[in-house]
Amino acid sequence: MRGIWIAGVAALAGLLSVGVRLALSALDRKKRNGGSRDAGQGADVAVAQTTGSKEIQADQAQFLNTMAGTMAVLVDGIGNKNTGKLCAQLAVDTILDHYEQYHVLHNPEYFFKTVFYEANCRIQRTIGDRRGGASAGAVFLGQSRLHYALAGDIRIAVLRHGELIPLSRGQTMDVLAAEAWREGKIARQEALWSMEEKRIWNYVGMDGFRELEICEQPIRLKDGDIVLMASRGIFEEMSWGEMEDLLVSDVPLQEAAERMVRAAEMKPSREKDNGSVVLIKARVEMV
User: Fold this and answer.
1) What is the pLDDT confidence band of residue 6, given thresholds at 50, 70 and 90?
2) Does the reported pTM lie above 0.85?
3) DSSP of the chain, one letter per residue?
């Protein structure tokens, strides 16, 4: 009888342990995908994704609202099979795990440089000899200002007064060639030859990881501004005008994100990349 009682207690303890782990896991997911909001600094965020014509969704899009503000991360994994997905998750976890510790983020540019470099090293250590990496973009909204950083090809823009204003250039060969021509490093004809080359020349997880694209000056936000982040499966299928039309429609933020994904899926392209869109609606206190 005593043995049955002990076994029953052990079984109950096991069930309680499982229940605690599940509850903690659910709490962690809720915190990561929403988080507490600082009055006047929090932002409404919507995320929508499509696998395109791919078998595996290698995009990761997550956000975190804390007392410091809102951090949103969009990562497009690079690599065969599950390698790209793993690289994307490593990059997202590295950035948000570090950000979660901050109550105030005084120097977002330094933060970006530090966490992107760590994500690069962490990916390299994890995947070893496998070829992989990720295009990664991060946006921080705090104290009524927008800061961003990216490595690779993630598009970032702001919708204000019905107009979608591109912010990021992307780290692709055509952009690199245009900058080299403006600086007088290559001839005009060489730049023209490279203008159709969209290959990424920098991303987290690569040997010889280079400087990030970081906004030169923080952007002062206005209440109601919508920040857009998009990966290739969205911006390669849709024009800026098409995205703008969907964003100015009077629908909830999540519905606007889902409409954008559906519009990309309906395009006639046979080869569609994974696509993700993150929309962030700024809430700025009037003073």
Assistant:
1) very low
2) no
3) -HHHHHHHHHHHHHHHHHHHHHHHHHHHHHHHHT----TTT-EEEEEEEE-TT-SS--EEEEEEEETTEEEEEEEEEEESTTHHHHHHHHHHHHHHHHHTT-S--S-HHHHHHHHHHHHHHHHHHHHTTS-EEEEEEEEEEETTEEEEEEESS-EEEEEETTEEEE----SBHHHHHHHHHHTTSS-HHHHHHHTT---B---BT-TT--PPEE-SSPEEP-TT-EEEEE-HHHHTTS-HHHHHHHHHSSS-HHHHHHHHHHHHHTS--SS---EEEEEEEE-----
